[in-house]
Amino acid sequence: MDEENGEGVAKKFLYVNRKAPYGTIYALESLEVVLIGAAFDQEVSVAFLGDGVYQLVKGGDTKGVEMKNFSPSYGALDDYDVNQLYVEQEAMQARGLVEADLVVNVEVVSAERMAEIMESQDVILSF
Amino acid sequence: MTMLHTVNKSPFDNGTLRCCLKFARQGSAVLLIEDGVYAAAKDTAVSKDVQAAMGSVAIYALRADVEARGMQNRVMDGVRLVDYEGFVDLVVEYSAVQSWI
């Protein structure tokens, strides 16, 4: 570990998800980047804003659209020590969703709190 | 002449549905597909607008897209679910199709 030139220092990474799954490739790409990034021992958080909250909705069955159902993979994030998942309260409310509708345990936060979380990061990747 | 309108964008992320409903005339039909199916869910910030539109236009949603997104138990009363064959039937039934993208 050589902290002086920044090598070996764990940085705080935040992945921001703002798109619904399946309609575009963003959600799946983000999930893959999160899982790959998790191998590098960084401090990872994932935020779900706006339509991004739809990525976590339970009960999806993709047989009819012939696409891979990737929602079980969110459950695997914890195995990679990615367990800081933040969901925007206002987005849930606008879509008639409650925490019990989601596939994983999350922290539902206000926009104000979400802004604080964003400000506390070293690196933010947006999808 | 009555038309079939298709909407494939989420009503929360995009003004496509709003624009479609503004121009959809009495007797026409709106088929929600892909991320457009989120507009079929009940108890959301846009469900009132969709309900109001049902007074003059028929609202359909593509079942495979509804199921892929886990919305099958949230579809509001009055929205009719169709499969891909039903999609084709609607295309045949109406005089023209406008794909709002």
Give a nutshell description of this structure:
The complex is a heterodimer of chains A (127) and B (101). By secondary structure, chain A is α/β, with parallel strands linked by helices.
Describe the structure.
The complex is a heterodimer of chains A (127) and B (101). A five-stranded parallel sheet of chain A has the order 4-3-2-1-5. In chain A, 25% of the residues lie in helices and 19% in strands. Chain A has helices at 26-37, 72-76, 89-94, 111-119; strands at 12-17, 43-48, 84-88, 107-109, 123-126. Chain A is an alpha/beta fold and 127 residues long. Chain B has a single domain (3-100), classed as Hypothetical Protein Ychn, Chain: A (3-Layer(aba) Sandwich), CATH 3.40.1260. A five-stranded parallel sheet of chain B has the order 4-3-2-1-5. In chain B, β2, α2 (47-53) and β3 (58-62) form a beta-alpha-beta unit. Chain B starts with a strand and ends with a strand. Classes of the chains: A alpha/beta (127), B alpha/beta (101). At the A-B interface, α3 of A face α3 of B.
